[in-house]
Amino acid sequence: MTGQGEQLAIRAEDLVVGFGARLVLDRLSLEVRRGEVLGLVGGSGSGKSVLLRSIIGLLPKRAGRIEVMGVDLDRVPDRERRAVERRWGILFQQGALFSSLSALENVAFPMREHLRLSDRLRSEVALAKLEMVGLSVADANKLPAELSGGMVKRVALARALALDPDIVFLDEPTSGLDPIAAGDFDDLIKTLQQTLGLTVFMVTHDLDSLASVCDRVAALAGGKVIAVGPLAEVMAVEHPWIEAYFKGKRGRALGRAVLHMGT
Predict the structure, then answer these.
(1) d(Cα 88, Cα 68) in Å, to the nearest integer?
(2) What is the pTM of this model?
(3) Of 67, 138, 187, 210, which has the fewest CB atoms closer than 10 Å, so is most exposed?
(4) pLDDT digits over 203-220, tens only?
(5) Dihedral sign, Cα of residue 236, residue 229, residue 150, residue 145
(6) For 22-73, what is each residue's pLDDT tens digit?
(7) What are phi and psi of 169, to 5 degrees?
């Protein structure tokens, strides 16, 4: 029988992160299960992206511990930490593509850094990743400036999948997309998660994404996780921020949809 720790992709425990005198995360704890899509929501400045960046090591923490795939990232040699880091991929909010590289070259970049592949094989694998996210051979040779916002997100997602990760971090993946493109991207995320068995940690403010993609939702307020669970359970929690977020005009529409899904 496997233990709970072996079933977790990410465990943050008593995490403290701040800037100067301001604490953003105040003894925050959160667990992400292997194979699930966890949606992280919170108000502006609540620390959603700070938590993501702290987990992947882009922001230092003042206290607490972070485990990824059962490994305490502060207690292992650099070589082992780098091995864990290769098990995740990241899609940043604006895509963060290299503007001077083609879509194909952007996707191939992590392979160039970490894998010993011939140029031909690296290009073939990169093209396969682009096709996996719904882009064509013609798209592969385009520069980011020649792509639509939705296509940029897809290239960035293909790059996040370049090293066949176990975990994918998504920072506002549908931000800036029109409703149709956002819906298509949600469908893509869910399909890839189910097909590849990914764990997905998704920072979002998109109510539709919460309903259509996420297995569980975690809500942040006051530097802590104030609720975590299936969407319907989180929406039922009595907390001022949750009530304001989920019971506004858009939230009420989502609530009716969630209630209908449960009948």
Answers:
(1) 9
(2) 0.89
(3) 138
(4) 998 899 999 999 999 999
(5) positive
(6) 999 999 999 999 999 999 999 988 999 999 999 999 999 999 999 999 999 9
(7) -100, 125
